[in-house]
Specification:
Elements: E1 2-11, E2 14-24, E3 29-33, H1 40-47, E4 54-59, E5 62-63, H2 67-72, E6 73-76, H3 88-98, H4 105-114, H5 130-142, E7 148-152, H6 160-175, E8 179-184, E9 196-201, E10 204-210, H7 211-217, H8 221-239
Parallel strand pairs: 3-8, 3-9, 6-7, 7-8
Antiparallel strand pairs: 1-2, 1-4, 4-5, 9-10
Bound molecules: adenosine-5'-diphosphate.
């Protein structure tokens, strides 16, 4: 479970996250949606414990910067950053040692098989294409079997096979109770997997909907999204 309470993040005087409060339950797939610059990545990085912020963030009841929370948390950044001089397999080994995992090899091999990395096992990080780097980043985050997992724009840069495989994995994780948070500026990329959506604009959550609410009301999510993001932009332009 993820609990975000009054998250505010400023870069000098600029407020990138403005008092965000939201919760994502076990087994729920939540989407942080919003145009470029809305503050999605900043929120994800704060949750991952990479930035200083005001407010409180708990991962399965533990403060997000605690070691306990880090054990539960998987994070796939928007831009993958593999170690240049470690091979694909050494990345798995490195994570396994850092997290003191036991019996991780079969899981690592299975992840590599599903992302078509098995024959790249001995390739160095610096020898991998952008898409392969993204896949290794996903494997590193998932090999720890996280209880909460953060994906920042996960589908950008992946080939269709990897997208299909990742979506299948997201469904498997959800079925066993994993909390999943995905940031994206493309609503249609998550159309078939979201349970809850938070629409962000200018650092704020402007709307929250569950899939049930949308199905029952017949509301069109895309119209809601553009209604929020475009009308705001127009209002801002008028104010200038
Ligand atoms: P999104 O992920 O929704 O595209 P970001 O969280 O990356 O949005 O950025 C939100 C806002 O914060 C943008 O206006 C961006 O320019 C600004 N921003 C992001 N990172 C930094 C930084 N390191 N320093 C200053 N401003 C930043």
């Amino acid at each position: 479970m993820l609990n975000v309470s009054h998250l505010t993040k400023k870069y000098n005087k600029f407020t990138a996250n403005d008092n965000l409060t939201f919760m994502v339950s076990d087994g729920e797939t939540a989407v942080l949606a919003g145009p470029n610059g809305a503050g999605k990545s900043t929120a994800i990085k704060c949750i991952a414990g990479l930035l200083r912020f005001n407010g409180e963030i708990e991962i399965c009841g533990a403060k997000n910067k605690s070691v306990e929370a880090k054990r539960y948390l998987g994070y796939i950044p928007e831009i993958p950053a593999p170690f240049e001089l470690l091979t694909v397999w050494e990345h798995m080994e490195f994570i396994a040692r850092a997290y003191r995992l036991t019996d991780w090899e079969d899981r690592a091999k299975e992840l590599m098989r599903r992302f078509e990395l098995t024959d790249k096992r001995d390739k160095l990080g610096k020898e991998l294409s952008k898409g392969m780097q993204q896949k290794i980043s996903i494997c590193c985050a998932l090999v720890i079997d996280p209880k909460v997992v953060l994906f920042d724009e996960p589908f950008v840069g992946l080939d269709p096979h990897a997208i299909k495989e990742l979506k299948a994995m997201l469904n498997e994780m959800k079925a066993k109770g994993t909390t999943i948070i995905i940031s994206t500026h493309m609503l249609d990329s998550v159309d078939d997997i979201w349970d809850r959506v938070f629409i962000m604009m200018n650092g704020k959550i402007e709307a929250e909907r569950s899939r049930k609410q949308v199905e029952e009301s017949g509301e069109n999510l895309e119209e809601l999204f553009f209604g929020i993001t475009e009308s705001k932009t127009e209002r801002e332009e008028e104010a200038e």
